[in-house]
Each structure stands twice: as structure tokens, then as C-alpha cells.
Design goal:
The chain is α/β, with parallel strands linked by helices and about 425 residues long. The chain has 16 helices and nine strands. The protein has three domains: about 190 residues, Rossmann fold (3-Layer(aba) Sandwich); about 90 residues, Roll (Ubiquitin-like (UB roll)); about 90 residues, de novo design (two linked rop proteins). Bound molecules: flavin mononucleotide and iron/sulfur cluster.
Length: about 425
């Protein structure tokens, strides 16, 4: 990863050279301070201004501008804000939050302290996958004074990290998304204005507080500043295998990123799923030169999501892989809303039949229609994410969809499915 170090503005620290989030060789407090220095003693308004300049967006999936969330919480807080580090990482294909918490827990805790300073919060939570709690407890034991942070084990499952599920769990309820007339920045934990940020967003915030927004935006592109953590899978690896995490500059094209991380030229791949299980299939090598940025990916109807990339080799069936994921997503829904109770199981069933070469043209039309029916109808974006995945699969594997309608499969063209039409 290339990085430009700039001269820091007055009151800011000089950044380390090289990697940003993974610059410290070990997770200990003294190494952390030797690597990054302390956070300058500036006002909350100055910190907020640096976040604005940085252009930081959330790394938990939705990519929402962090400054706008901070401002919304400040406006609603009335001095009683709550800040939450979201380390649930419910997506099984993602490993970046776990890696970050293992290697740089103090950056995440610093970020939570910065968020609390900006919003005036006195109450802070770290909502974490249970296996990561010891790493954070160890880091907390090394810190003196400062903000009191309560560690809470995250619920299990794909939707446990959705922000209303996080709030529900912190209020001693189930880790399931919940309906509310209010957004959590208005009324969240204990009825207070609540800021939920992904742990990587907080770690980036900790760097911005030290080195400033201009430094942060010196990596990346105008609309996607800084670096991001990507979990990039090996070809043919089971979807849930822990994959390698990379820190990448926004704006780098897909081609060198995949060649470097996967160890194969894009010409040997047929597609990559970008953004994880709620993500978008991009065709390869057609999309090989797309820059990994908001505007670059927009042209393909994609976003980086939480940075998961799953490459697909030429001899794998994209429809089968998609069917496996859709089946998982249907099982993982909280089954509280119509689209998740009825729509997703139906979609999973029909898509599995398509992948098995047992669905004709009307079946494909039914999938498209059902995908449209679940969009925008849930209490959370789970159905929308599932629908996005399905639509992109039908688009990217269009040739294979046609073959499957006739009981054949591009990946094993010589082997028609038995009993198919
Ligand atoms: C079904 C679903 C699951 C989610 N799971 C996570 C998760 O595990 N971790 C996370 O940080 N955000 C998750 N999110 C996004 C959160 O709702 C929220 O937008 C995010 O934590 C905000 O942090 P950010 O602005 O720093 O990205 C999920 C969203 C949805 C719809
Ligand atoms: S849309 Fe699905 S996952 Fe989201 S709250 Fe409703 S039932 Fe749960």
C-alpha cells in the first residue's frame, strides 16, 4: 500500500510512515503510544472539524458520512449521548474487525474516546464478538483513567450487528433489529441519543484526531478518502473460512488488488463478489479496472460495503455460490417482518432450484419479481441486501442463467443436470 505523509497542521501529530491501522508491531499500549503518540488536547469542535475535512465514511457497510452522524447525535443528545463501538462483525465472510481488534485494540478504544469527546457522551460500550473480548479487556487493563467503557458480548448471527439490534442488546433485549418511530441517534440505548460506529471507523477516527483530516484524505480519492480494511478470500475457499485482511488505499483498481491478494491474474477469474453477502457480483475481467471507490463502483451498481471480496474461479458456478449465500441469509433473518418471513425463504427455494437447473424462464421471472417485492419492506436493510445480491447474480451470470434454464451449467458445460428441463 502506498501512502503520502504530509506535514501536520498546528497541534497535530506526525503520522507513522507506511501502513496506517496496522502500523504498530504489537497490540500493547506502549507500542501503540510509541507508534502513534497521544491524542492532542484540542476542543470537541476542533476534532469535529477535522472529521469533516477528512471525509471519513462508516466502515460497517452503509458508508454513511461520520461527521453527519456525529452532528445528529450532538443535536439530539442534550448532554446525555451514548457511544458504541460495533464489533459484532455478523457477516461470516468478514474478518477485518476481528483482525483489527486483535492487532490494534487501542486504536479502537481511542476512537471511542474521541467520539465521546465530540458528542459529550459519558457512557460508552464496546459490543464485541465473545472471542474478541479478552483482547479488548487486556487493552482496557493497560489504560488508566479516561472514559469508562463497558464491554458487552454481541449476539450471534448475521443481523446481530445491525444498529437497532445492537441497541436492543445493550438495553438487555435480544440482539435483533427492532422497529422504532425514532432513529437511534435520537433515541437509542436507554432512550438516549446513541452513536453506533463500526470499530474500524473508530480506529480511523483515532488517526484523524492525531494527524488531521488533510492527512487522512491524502490517501484515497475525493469521494472515498483514506484507507479501508478488506477481507479478501482465496479462490475456491469455503465462504466462511477466515480470510486474509488487507489495508488498501481507496481508489486502487480491482486488478492489482486481486492479483496481489489472490495470487491470480483477473483473467483467470470469472467474477468477484464485492461487499460481502449483501454485496454485488462484478464480472471479470470486464470490471477489472474499476477503482475501489464510491464513484468507481457506482458504475457497476456496487459499493464496498464492509470490504469483503470473494473471487470466483472459472470452474465454479456463480449461481450455486449465490444460492448458498441466499439460503444462509434467509435462515439468518430475524423473521419479524413479512419480507423475511415469506419473501426470503421463497427466494432461497427458487434460487436453489435455478442453481440446480430445475427452473425455466417463468422461474427466473418469479425470482426477479420476488426480489422486487422484498425491497424497502423490512424494519432493516436485510431484505434489500439479499435482493441486491440476487439481482447482481442474475446480471453477472446472465449467460449461465440461460444455460441453467435448459438444465446446463457453464462451470460444467458437459454435465447436464439429471431431470432438468
Ligand atoms: C443486517 C445488517 C447487519 C449489520 N451488521 C453489522 C455488523 O456486524 N457490524 C457493523 O459495524 N455494522 C453492521 N451493520 C451496519 C449497522 O447497522 C450500522 O450502520 C453501522 O454499525 C454503523 O457504523 P459505521 O457508520 O461506522 O459503519 C449491519 C447492517 C445490517 C442491515
Ligand atoms: S427486515 Fe428481516 S432481518 Fe430486518 S428486522 Fe425485519 S425480519 Fe428482521
Amino acid at each position: 500500500m502506498t501512502m503520502i505523509a504530509t506535514t501536520p497542521a498546528e497541534g497535530l501529530r506526525m503520522p507513522p510512515e507506511g501502513a496506517r491501522l496496522f502500523a504498530a508491531p504489537d497490540p500493547g499500549r506502549s507500542t501503540h503510544l510509541a507508534t502513534y503518540g497521544t491524542i492532542p488536547d484540542v476542543t470537541p469542535a476542533q476534532l469535529l472539524e477535522q472529521v469533516r475535512i477528512s471525509g471519513l465514511t462508516g466502515r460497517g457497510g452503509a458508508g454513511f458520512p461520520t461527521v453527519a452522524k456525529l452532528e445528529a447525535v450532538i443535536a439530539a443528545a442534550n448532554g446525555r449521548a451514548v457511544v458504541v463501538a460495533n464489533g459484532a462483525e455478523g457477516e461470516p465472510a468478514s474478518n477485518k474487525d476481528a483482525e483489527l481488534l486483535r492487532r490494534a485494540p487501542h486504536l479502537v478504544l481511542d476512537g471511542l474516546e474521541v467520539a465521546a469527546r465530540i458528542t459529550g457522551a459519558q457512557q460508552a460500550f464496546a459490543y464485541l464478538r465473545p472471542e474478541l473480548i479478552p483482547f479488548v479487556q487486556q487493552a482496557l487493563a493497560e489504560r488508566e483513567g479516561g472514559l469508562r467503557i463497558t464491554v458487552v458480548p454481541a449476539g450471534a448471527g448475521f443481523v446481530s450487528g445491525q444498529e437497532t439490534a445492537v441497541v436492543s442488546r445493550l438495553d438487555s433485549g435480544p440482539a435483533l433489529p427492532r422497529f422504532s418511530r425514532h432513529r437511534i441517534f435520537q433515541r437509542g440505548v436507554g432512550g438516549r441519543a446513541t452513536l453506533v460506529q463500526n470499530v474500524e471507523t473508530l480506529a480511523q477516527l483515532a488517526l484523524i484526531a492525531r494527524y488531521g483530516g488533510v492527512w487522512f484524505a491524502s490517501a484515497g480519492t475525493a469521494d472515498s478518502t483514506g484507507t479501508f480494511l478488506a477481507t479478501i478470500h482465496a479462490v475456491g475457499q469455503p465462504l466462511t473460512t477466515a480470510a486474509t485482511v488487507w489495508e488498501i488505499n481507496h481508489g486502487l483498481p480491482l486488478r492489482p488488488v486481486l492479483a496481489g491478494a489472490v495470487g491470480r491474474p483477473v483473467e483467470e477469474l470469472q467474477a468477484v463478489l464485492i461487499g460481502g453477502y449483501h454485496g454485488t457480483w462484478l464480472p471479470l475481467p470486464a470490471a477489472a479496472d474499476v477503482p475501489l471507490s464510491r464513484s468507481g463502483l457506482e458504475a457497476f451498481g456496487a459499493t464496498l460495503g464492509a470490504g469483503v471480496m470473494i473471487p470466483l474461479g472459472k470452474n465454479a458456478c456463480g449461481l450455486e455460490t449465490t444460492a448458498t449465500i441466499v439460503g444462509y441469509l434467509a435462515r439468518e433473518s430475524a423473521k419479524q417482518c413479512g419480507p423475511c418471513r415469506f419473501g426470503l425463504p421463497e427466494l432461497a427455494h427458487t434460487f436453489t432450484a435455478l442453481a440446480a437447473g430445475k427452473v425455466g424462464r417463468t422461474g427466473v421471472d418469479a425470482i426477479r419479481q420476488a426480489a422486487g417485492l422484498v425491497e424497502g419492506r423490512g424494519a432493516c436493510k436485510h431484505p434489500d441486501g439479499t435482493s441486491r445480491l440476487i439481482r447482481s447474480a442474475l446480471r453477472t451470470f446472465a449467460d449461465d442463467v440461460r444455460l441453467h434454464q435448459h438444465g446446463r451449467c457453464l462451470a460444467r458445460i458437459a454435465e447436464p443436470y439429471g431431470g432438468a428441463r
